[in-house]
Amino acid sequence: MDECRTAMMNAVRIHEYGPPEALCFERVPRPAAGPGEVLIRVRAAGVNPGDWQMRSGWAAEKFGLSLTLPFTPGYDLAGVVEETGPGAERYLAGDRVFGMTATAGAYAEYAAVPESRLAPLPAALDYVHAAGVPMSAFTAWTAVHEQSILTPGQTALINGVSGGVGHYAVQFAKLEGARVIAVTSGRNRTFAQSLGADEVFDYTTDDWVELEGAADAVIDTVGGEWTDALVRSVRQGGTLVPVGWGQYSQALAETIGVRVQKLLMAPFEAARLEWIGELLSAGDLHVEIGAEMRLLEAVRAHALSESRRARGKIVLRTEA
Predict the structure, then answer these.
(1) Which residues of 182-199 are buried (b: 16+ CB within 10 A; e: fewer)?
(2) pLDDT for 2-14, tens place per residue?
(3) Are 291 and 314 in contact (CB under 8 A)?
């Protein structure tokens, strides 16, 4: 009888590591809000590279981040407060919010989230665009403000500007008064310029030699190939901040006098997310939604994210 009374919901889970097809759209019990938590009726969930890195087992292999299976992916979400748990006083049922879960679980119709990891959703922002904000915007903000420490008039080179983190990084650097060199493919030239890039370098046709010593700071959201060319792009005394997974020659960096600083994620701050929401509402910051899909299309969303061909953010809607 208890099972019959259990509230159910749709969710996407994995039962074992694997390709995108390992994602299962299924009926599962609805969570309850614990102490300090609110239950969110999720309207949209953001897709981040970390989601498929965990699903595939890559994160477990590289960093030892093993999962308790079955596992519901997803950290970024936007939705409506359904109910509040004991001690949760910041929000009321019916409030529109966006933010990040503490332990994944956003690919679902409902998610229990600590209220400290949420911010009010600005009236001018819809659920889909809001779900494309938290993790990528926080990563870009940290890379630009806390690690590159750009000052007005300096030059930032951002590799991979068409992606989720990259397109925020360009905008944060410009808001800081920096000159931005955007590295992308030719097909994204106009998009990079629309973000405010002062110069666009087409990695498919342009000569990397042209960028040697061009920037005070390099933010690499891609990793992989061309990493030595990126090290050479930094001026003596400058900083390279890797966001993507790449191998950078420490010997080359030391020869040039470049500091390669591993990305450090700042602790989640609701006040900062609220500030980012205000920038979006005012039109000072833009979130690019490259693909909007239904929750049951999570397999296709992961395949697109893993291809690294998506522009901006991929977001899953929980409603048709």
Answers:
(1) bbbeeebbebbeebebbb
(2) 555 789 999 999 9
(3) yes
State pLDDT tens for residues 292-305: 999 999 999 999 99
DSSP string across 42-99: EEEEEE-HHHHHHHHTHHHHHH-----SSB----EEEEEEEEE-TT--S--TT-EEEE
> In the Cβ-directed half-sphere of 204, how many Cα atoms lie within 13 Å?
7
- Structure-token match 């087409």, residue found: 202
Rounded distance between C-alpha atoms, residue 196 and residue 87, angstroms: 44
Q: Which pTM value belongs to this model? A: 0.93
- Environment class of 151 (CB within 10 Å of its CB; exposed 0-12, middle 13-18, buried 19+): exposed
Element (H, E) at 250: helix 250-256
| Tokens 């890559």, located at residue | 58
**Phi, psi dihedrals of residue 81, rounded to the nearest 5°:** -65, 125
